[in-house]
Amino acid sequence: MTHGTFLRKITDYAHRADPYPLYAELRKTPVLRDDIGPYLVSTYWEIHGLLHDPRLSSDPRNLDPEAAGLVVAEEEDDPSLPPSFLRLDPPEHDRLRRMAMYPFGPPHTPRRIHDMRGELARIVTGLVDGFEGRDQIDLVDDFAYPFPVTVICRLLGVPRADEPLFHAWADTIVSSADPDPDADAAERRGAVRRARTELAMYMSELIEERRRAPGEDMLSSLVHGDGPDGRMAHSELVSTAALLLIAGHETTVNLITNGMLTLLRHPDVLKRLHDDPRLAVPLVEEVLRYEPPVQLLPQRTPLTDIDIAGVTIPKGASVWLILASGNRDPRRFPDPDRFDPDRRDNQHLGFGSGIHICFGAPLARLEAQLALAELARRLENPRLLEDPPPYRRNAVLRGPRHLPIGFDGVRAGREP
């Protein structure tokens, strides 16, 4: 395998079901300049170091124009939906993230996620109750998608009935992060711009409704909040709300689906979880390491030349951090290709690290823990009907598009 084929191999759908042999080959050269252009960083400590390096920018406007071509990143010239804090550097990133965190979690609302536990459990129970009388389901369509979508709608205050609208917009926008070297860039850019514009208009209308009549939801808190940084401008509200809506369910769908797929491939662990739901906490951490929903972070760029692992990455170059490869680095994790929920010191890269560590990680963790524990407890003799299942095309947000599961019955839910 020549260096020039790595990026195309990673993005090739033929490898979506099992990209890990490619990552093992890639780790032989921790920092590799791909013939297509980007620098691929594949080993744990190098990725971790760069995620904490203030010289590495997340703002696509700092990319050299010749290096910016593979991922559609037009936020900087899109007035309808400007960049979210995910795509900004300090100090603007820090200001917007603090303002978004104010109604979401510590230190100002430290119990928000904890106090949702009962409601989340009721949603999970209701979804599993719906399996009664059936002998098979598609875990994605019947559970892993509707659960986090319902949660983020309630949290933000977005009407659940509008899901078909934002589902289509989210699919298109998320596809822009998929680094497909063979895609028609102009066609993708047009589709993404239309989706962004329609989502921005939708969010603007909801924001104006909350200005007139605030509720108990997070969107109302963002609109009317007066934290130490003041209030967000309207455009900042729109981009932050859109980010939370999309990110609040897209990665969690994959986390739950990847987790259940892994459990069904490891029936001994599934049995342990059935017997002891407390195993869900370390188990989810191991899923995040072993089958992370976010496989790579494309389009970072140095603000100055950076020397790492004997390679100088020049200012403005495109840098791709292959998180899923770092999670299988044997220099960091003993026996990394083994699924082990008892693994110690599991400081994985499943949620990233540094200032851009996943904003919604506490909620995603709790959702996955409750979901996998309830599925393990209530499904009788669950089994895969297709292995490997059909995967989503996206190489960045990797997970099955469908996961057909058969079972013999559904055990009764817990008493309220």
TrEMBL record:
Gene3D superfamilies for this protein: Cytochrome P450 (1.10.630.10)
GO MF, one example: oxidoreductase activity, acting on paired donors, with incorporation or reduction of molecular oxygen
Keywords, sorted A to Z: Heme, Iron, Metal-binding, Monooxygenase, Oxidoreductase
Family matches, as Pfam families: p450
SUPFAM superfamilies registered for this protein in UniProt: Cytochrome P450
InterPro entries in alphabetical order: Cyt_P450 (IPR001128), Cyt_P450_B (IPR002397), Cyt_P450_CS (IPR017972), Cyt_P450_sf (IPR036396)
Entry's family note: Belongs to the cytochrome P450 family.
Protein name as catalogued: Cytochrome P450 family protein
Taxonomic source organism: Streptomyces sparsogenes DSM 40356
